[in-house]
Write a structure and sequence with these properties.
Chain lengths: ~290, ~290
């Protein structure tokens, strides 16, 4: 039995869809039902449900966007840094393998050599390597809390998108923002991401950290061009002149824009589609 | 009614003694009794007990020393960074003034000018200004979580000591450590500290952050000389040749050694005794 925490969230819902479509037995537990932040209750839940694999899709991302984390700091720390530690303890105590939905937003730009960030590069957009957003700071500490964990996958997601219009979907965001920031990013098709996460477990790839973005990178202007081409929106797309103007006019917290290396997941056999292909497919099937 | 959280700890016990001696009505609540990490339960507790002032002496310090925080990261974050945010929410929701026992261990050394750190100097021994211990990182984030809180005192304690032999007492530690690190520090007499904390509220000094250390500073060698003079211990005191040797042989996490400026608490009328006087009095009354 798969135990899914955070099943009502944007990522958690996509795990549920995957399991429904593939008829994989799972149990999605809401915090209101069982307070899984309590280590003893989580151990009991794991034992009662005979969990064979646990997925943590719970976390605090901030709504409408990551700026909310600058205000709700305690909740953000609790969800992103403390909860992974609670789950680690419970899973290690019961010998339960598990996976944690982390974020690639603990990096900024590219490495000093101009290459994409590999899984073992230390975060450079974190409390320990400022500047960072509070959100990114807590996600990096969450990974630090899991350092040395046994039987644990750390799956790094970045800027999820798919074909379903949603305030959490990157493509919807680009369509709706008044003004955009030009930047190069690795991003994750949500369906590809959860499929790759679960494939890690199904294929018993070695435990550890995996960058699970669609291979390659994309610039905001490229995304706008694809939106224009496929959806023909009746609007102009404006861009901030610089990151400074963006920070001054639109954001409280700096944003992570970065490129991740995906060769580890490719070598492990859990690769996702190339990023441009995934975007084009999402726009072809777009559900407004 | 004063509501005391963390009343069973080293600092909390000293608050209890203060209230007992002065016949001040208070209620000390253990987490096992009421889970005050749950915002709704904390609000209910505040209302049921008609709390007029809340003191948070709860936190995670690590036993036998701060190195334990490098292992128990989630607990450390929960106690030192999340809990202050939960209490802030509950106190702001109920309009309850309160005080938080923070730490001066978010600084290292002296300022670039060679002066002691004032309350508004940004931490320089924290996740955002590495290196730091995990403990110090979480205490600095705890203060960040309280930034802008209304009706809130932040009381900075450092390296508590008094006349009672205890594994938590700095004088006991110096007496018992195999080898010592020479360093200059501001330190807090525990009784002076809790008296000064409560005086902030009694005298209604303006809310905000206060360095509550005994004015002045002390070197480890000076403390050893005083121990020799007053207690005449039958042992040699050895010192590490350098901080590098200390880190190599005795510690997992770097230690904060720093000097704090106490003019703000002095101006507010809640000053503590000069540090050498406080140490000498503790040694004169020493209870082995």
């Amino acid at each position: 039995m798969i135990l899914l925490l955070g099943g009502s969230g944007y990522v958690g819902s996509s795990f549920r869809s995957l399991f429904e479509v593939r008829h994989i037995p799972y149990r999605s537990v809401a915090r209101a039902e069982v307070d899984y932040y309590d280590p003893a209750r989580l151990v009991a839940l794991i034992e009662q449900t005979r969990t064979t694999f646990l997925i943590n899709a719970a976390g605090y991302t901030g709504k409408p966007n990551v700026d909310a984390c600058e205000i709700h700091k305690a909740e953000c720390l609790l969800g992103n840094a403390v909860l992974p530690g609670v789950i680690r303890s419970a899973c290690e105590a019961t010998g339960t393998p598990w996976g944690h939905v982390s974020s690639g937003c603990i990096y900024s730009g590219r490495t000093a050599d101009g290459t994409a960030f590999r899984e073992d590069d230390p975060p450079n957009f974190s409390f320990r390597r400022p500047p960072c957003s509070f959100y990114s700071g807590t996600k990096a500490i969450g990974e630090e809390v899991l350092d040395g964990a046994s039987g644990c996958y750390i799956w790094r997601l970045r800027i999820p998108f798919d074909h379903c219009n949603s305030p959490r979907n990157y493509l919807t965001k680009v369509l709706s923002y008044q003004c955009l920031l030009e930047a190069e990013n690795s991003i994750s098709h949500l369906g590809d991401f959860v499929t790759a996460c679960f494939a890690c477990w199904e294929r018993r790839v070695p435990f550890g950290t995996y960058n699970l973005t669609n291979p390659g990178s994309v610039n905001t202007r490229q995304v706008v061009d694809l939106l224009r081409q496929y959806l023909q929106p009746q609007r102009e797309f404006r861009f901030f002149a610089s990151e400074e103007e963006f920070m001054q006019k639109a954001a409280k917290a700096p944003r992570s824009n970065c490129v991740l290396d995906t060769t580890k997941s490719e070598a492990a056999g859990v690769a996702m589609r190339p990023v441009h292909q995934a975007i084009q497919e999402a726009l072809t099937r777009w559900q407004p």
